[in-house]
Design goal:
Helices cover 28% and strands 28% of the residues. It has six helices and twelve strands.
Length: 246
């Protein structure tokens, strides 16, 4: 029996983009030999997400009538499915066809792997995500190589302390055993918080560099305005407790 990967997709409006996101997820799962399931969390869209979308694979729809933070919404979605793996996936990420196969191979090759991210690029083929590093003082976490041409960024493997939750693969039992995302974050850095806890309590964090998925980034309305309070809370919890590697 094939292992199951369950995509937990938080969405707010942009149904056409969501349909392509789900379509690409299904294609990547098939190429990886994984059975695909989807849970779409409609996070108080102005026009509610429909039960089906043209061209998208079937999905379970959960509707919130008021806006919830990323962590709260994703935790709710994770409890609604029982796949072997959870894939937290932003609705503005279009997976490379071989992304999930490469990420699954990381788990097969690394018994101590806690969570796996993937390399992503902006539409102009510059790096959006290739791992998260930490600067000294108030700098804190940031995306390494951000906005550098992808062709100039090495694909060599390395361990990270954190990767982005925009595309994060983790075994479901590990996620639930960790307590999931910390729901006190307004919207942002709960993914880094989770990775730091996993690295402390469970095992390695890696970002697979073999493929390049497309990420439009920060398409959710109001997303940018929620960054400062999330960063302030993150620093109150973690400043001085991570290694300076950036």
């Amino acid at each position: 029996m094939s292992e199951i990967v369950s995509a937990i997709v938080l969405s707010r409006d942009f149904d056409a983009l969501l349909a392509i996101c789900l379509q690409r997820f299904g294609e990547s799962a098939r190429r990886a030999g994984l059975a695909a399931r989807c849970v779409v969390i409609d996070n108080a869209s102005q026009t509610p997400c429909p039960e089906t979308l043209p061209g998208a694979p079937p999905y379970r729809l959960v509707r919130f009538d008021r806006h919830h933070g990323f962590g709260t919404a994703c935790n709710h979605g994770a409890r609604r499915d029982d796949g072997d793996f959870l894939l937290f996936l932003n609705n503005d990420v279009l997976l490379d066809p071989d992304a999930l196969a490469a990420m699954r191979e990381e788990f097969a090759a690394r018994p101590t792997l806690a969570a796996c991210g993937t390399r992503m690029v902006f539409p102009d083929r510059t790096i959006q995500h290739a791992g998260v590093v930490f600067g000294a003082g108030d700098v804190g976490p940031y995306h390494i190589h951000r906005k550098r041409p992808a062709s100039l960024v090495p694909r060599s493997e390395r361990r990270f302390q954190a990767v982005t939750g925009a595309c994060l693969m983790i075994r479901r039992d590990v996620f639930l055993g960790s307590g999931g995302f910390d729901e006190r974050y307004p919207f942002g850095l709960e993914d880094v918080d989770l990775c730091l806890r996993l690295g402390r309590d469970v095992g390695e964090i890696v970002c697979n560099q073999e493929t390049e998925s497309l990420h439009f980034e920060s398409m959710t309305p109001g997303r940018v305005e929620l960054d400062p309070p999330s960063r302030s809370f993150f620093m109150s919890q973690w400043k001085g407790r991570y290694a300076i590697d950036g």
